Protein: Coenzyme A biosynthesis bifunctional protein CoaBC
Organism: Leuconostoc litchii
Amino acid sequence: IRLQARIGRLAGRKIVITAGGTREALDPVRYLTNRSSGKMGFALAQAAVELGADVVLVTTNSRYKIYGVREVLVSSTRDMHAAVLHEFDNADVFIGAAAVSDYRPVEAAKDKIKKKSGENLTIKLMQNPDILAEVGRHKTMKQLVVGFAAETQNVLEYARKKLIQKNADMLVANDVSTTNSGFDSENNRVTILSRDEDPEIISLSPKIAIARSIMDKIAKKLA
Ligand code: CTP
Ligand code: CA
């Protein structure tokens, strides 16, 4: 084991980041999920280690290894919820970049669901826990909480509401109505909302550049 003292503006800081889209089982072979690729979460993890942070990435997929990042693989929202609450306890920052399924099937079938010819299938869904809102409720004065919001309309208005309702310190609003930004793209166009600052607009840029801007803001807030 090689022990190395980290240097950088986030040295000694623990940052918990979520990435990817959660998966909700319907039966042993099928699940409900969304179009999130996890790229933004991985870019944030990369930007955080560049500043010397101890990074825990709670993710639904293992895209690639980032030196210095501890990966916690999860699948469902409830798995992610449990992992995040556990890791956040002694963390300085939480960043919720995952696309969390708002609903899950009321129960996952034990056996593969068989089709019945000519009949429709109705699946009843129930609401999942809101990880970001719960972290927001639990945070202490010293902990920073950052959320994301993917919207297709009224982007700033909806994002501002999420910032307040989830008790976050920062919320990154993402307009996913346009092509070549957002889901599964290399680039993104965001507005960063903070409680105590004017919104900052970042025009279409690679996700790693956006991640570095977000991490720079976080480092300033922690200083
Ligand atoms: N989020 C979460 N847990 C959920 C739903 C969302 O932690 N069950 C987090 C996301 O990771 C993101 C933020 O909350 O950081 C906003 O997610 P979003 O889906 O935009 O907002 P919702 O509150 O789910 O509202 P809606 O989908 O209706 O717009
Ligand atoms: Ca949602």
Remarks:
- The longest strand covers residues 144-151.
